[in-house]
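Residues determine shape. Next comes a sample protein:
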Amino acid sequence: MKIALDPTPFHHTHSLLEFPRVAKEMGFDYLQMTPHKDFIPFFNHPKADDDLVQKLAKAAKDAEVEIASLLPVLRWSSPDPDAREAAVRYWKRVLQIAVDLGVQQIGTEFSGRPELAEESERAFYRSMEELLPIIEREGIHVAIDPHPDDFVENGLEAWRVIRGVNSKNLGMVYVASHTFHMGEAPLEIMREAGDRIRIVHVSDTMNHHASHGLRYITNPPGNPVRVHQHLKIGDGDVNWQEFFSGLNEIGFLDSPDTVMASSVFAENENAVEVSQYQSKTMREMVERAKSSN
């Protein structure tokens, strides 16, 4: 398992090519590259040319940090045909960047719309028809997160959609801070998806269902917003003993191919301290889960 830093908290204080060094300074040997304006921005064409990709590879080598995974977020499940077709084009460039960096693991989101769930699912499978041959040819594994406000948010339903593609090159991202949107069934989801869970994001969140739905109040009542946080471990309601023991049960913690990324976005002003805390605490919890086996 590769314990990686998501450098999002450092996007406004450091340049793209500094991220490997930052990861090392925070106690991480691995990096998960998330959307960035100079690399692969949200929903748009990648902005890194071959020269910049090679500079990033060199920066990682110089820092003795491995880029464990890429995380593009593109509208490949959009019910809008133009948006979907554009996303497929962007994805082809993302896959080439992954190959050039020697990265075999990609995490992403479905990026459809919950109010057009059926149409979004059709779009997703249509995109997979075009992209899966490339993914399989290059030996890349793509894991997908059922993000809040997507066409599929429940963890078990998301696994069914992924399983339906019928490819071992596709799997699931389990994001701890999405637990209360995924159906609050971590062990059931982990056991069902098993070794097809290839990436997990470690961040805490409050249970928005708590206090009979009044933990958070949005007005007007009944509006369709989704609420969650990406807090450091211990600042929310996620059951971390259950989370880590479940990962241990399915073999995630001992796999050489899996990625565990710290993804705390709530305290940029304390990014250094929080990142160091995450690195230390994640390792302690992994060891505790293994020793209790």
